[in-house]
């Protein structure tokens, strides 16, 4: 299991155990629970932690690695292609979108702000066009529904011709690459 980061959280309602993609373990709990009880919870979940760490290690092995030079090429391509694609899809489907920016987001393919500004990961440029469109349409639908409600998913599915689940499954198999240090 290795080292465990123990955090007393004022906002926490219960004991929470997380294993990060790196394999690091974090145990957070409210002060009222107490450290002894939180550590007992951790002990009870030791097998789950070990299995999750193994799964994360296997997953890390499947993540592609790219160089900083490749990142810069992707950044240029993303800046050139993704915003125009987003604006074209917004017009095609009748969405009101604010600014579209490209960032080096490592944990999300895209996001939509309360002001309907859309941010896209530069790594999206490495995906096939149909998955780029899927992510952008997903974010455009957030300009109407700022949540993941049933109405939101119905809108996404309608825009994608009934293929939301299929494309979501395909996207889940894609990984944002690790940038090699050399």
Describe what you observe in this structure.
This protein has helices spanning 35-44, 46-62, 68-93, 129-141, 150-159, 164-172; strands spanning 4-8, 16-19, 25-29, 65-66, 100-103, 110-112, 118-121, 178-179. The protein has 182 residues and is α/β, with parallel strands linked by helices. It folds into two domains: 4-62, no CATH class; 65-179, 2-Layer Sandwich (Zincin-like). The strands form three sheets. A three-stranded mixed sheet has the order 1-3-2. A three-stranded mixed sheet has the order 5-7-6. Helix 3 packs across helix 4 (129-141). The model has no long low-confidence stretch (mean pLDDT 92).
Number of domains: 2
Strand order of the largest sheet: 1-3-2
The residue fraction in helices comes out at 40-55%
Number of helices: 6
Low-pLDDT segments: none
Strand fraction? 15-25%
For the record, the CATH architecture of the largest domain stands as 2-Layer Sandwich
The CA-CA distance between the termini, in Å, is 30 Å
One letter per element, helices H and strands E, the order comes to EEEHHEHEEEHHHE
Based on secondary structure, the structural category is alpha/beta
Rg calculated over all Cα atoms:
20 Å
Highest CATH level, the class of the largest domain: Alpha Beta
* Mean pLDDT reading: 92
Labels describing this entry:
3-stranded mixed sheet; 2 domains; 182 residues; 6 helices; Zincin-like; alpha/beta
Give me a quick take on this structure:
This protein is α/β, with parallel strands linked by helices and 182 residues long. The chain has helices spanning 35-44, 46-62, 68-93, 129-141, 150-159, 164-172; strands at 4-8, 16-19, 25-29, 65-66, 100-103, 110-112, 118-121, 178-179.
């Amino acid at each position: 299991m290795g080292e465990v980061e123990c955090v007393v959280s004022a906002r926490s309602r219960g004991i929470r155990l997380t294993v990060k993609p790196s394999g690091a373990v974090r145990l957070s709990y409210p002060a009222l629970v107490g450290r002894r009880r939180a550590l007992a919870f951790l002990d009870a979940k030791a097998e789950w932690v070990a299995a999750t760490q193994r799964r994360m290690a296997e997953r890390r092995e499947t993540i592609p690695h790219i160089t900083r030079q490749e990142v810069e090429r992707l950044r240029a391509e993303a800046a050139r292609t993704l915003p125009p694609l987003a604006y074209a899809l917004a017009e095609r489907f009748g969405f009101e979108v604010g600014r579209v920016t490209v960032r080096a987001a490592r944990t999300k393919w895209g996001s939509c702000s309360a002001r309907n500004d859309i941010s896209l990961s530069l790594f999206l440029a490495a995906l096939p066009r149909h998955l780029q469109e899927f992510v952008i349409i997903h974010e455009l639908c957030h300009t109407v529904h700022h949540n993941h409600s049933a109405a939101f998913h119905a809108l996404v599915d309608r825009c994608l011709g009934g293929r939301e689940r299929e494309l979501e499954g395909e996207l889940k198999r894609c990984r944002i690459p690790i940038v090699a240090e050399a």
